[in-house]
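Example record

The entry below shows one chain as it appears in the dataset: sequence first, then structure tokens.
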Amino acid sequence: MNKRLEEIYALIGEGRGLVDVGTDHGYIPAALAKSGYSGKIIASDINPGPLQAARRSAESTGVADKIDFLLCDGLDGCDPSAIDTIVIAGMGGDTICGILDRAEWCMTPDYTLILQPMTKAEVVRYWLAYNGYEFLDEVLVRDGGIIYQIIRARIKENTPLSLAELFTGEFSLARKNALFGEFLDDLISRFETGIKGLERARDCVPWSLALKKQICAELREMREKANDENKGYL
């Protein structure tokens, strides 16, 4: 597994069962089965090709008989009683939210979500906060020169997030990452570039510019707070 998948794998605990949605090559299910995970293991994908690749991965390590391979769209074909952990990784934020929206059964404290959006992590966090999830972990990992965000969450109570935290993750959790300072600086730079572009645009939408400025200001305040605390997070 690459570093991104290793960090996702590290967030998985023992339980009733796990489904890896959009499993691709099935590395996480195979690693779980090889480790002796006692719950049910499901590798699901919307396309036959990736599912066949996942089966080959499992067969190569001798654990194919310990994994259920499910051809379905998102969680549409998953038995809610068989699992308590849902992994959705390597998809866009909009796609992840769409999968979860169609599976209202997972919106209870019985299920833990481990999500790794490739884009629009802020959309995923907004969806989680709006639907009453508690953020348990915010992990940053560098893989192939890219910093990825991994979120672990479970229904408990609505977690209020600032506009900036939609992009960084809950500050108290996100600041614990060694990559947080670099990630935050990159976010600030991106927003500053976007603001300059809007200010030069002839058709600039005032509310959009004001929103970006507000988020950028919150990100800068967050950076100052992290520096002031000086607890070795950065």
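Notes for this example: The longest strand covers residues 133-143. The CA atoms of residues 3 and 143 lie 6 Å apart.
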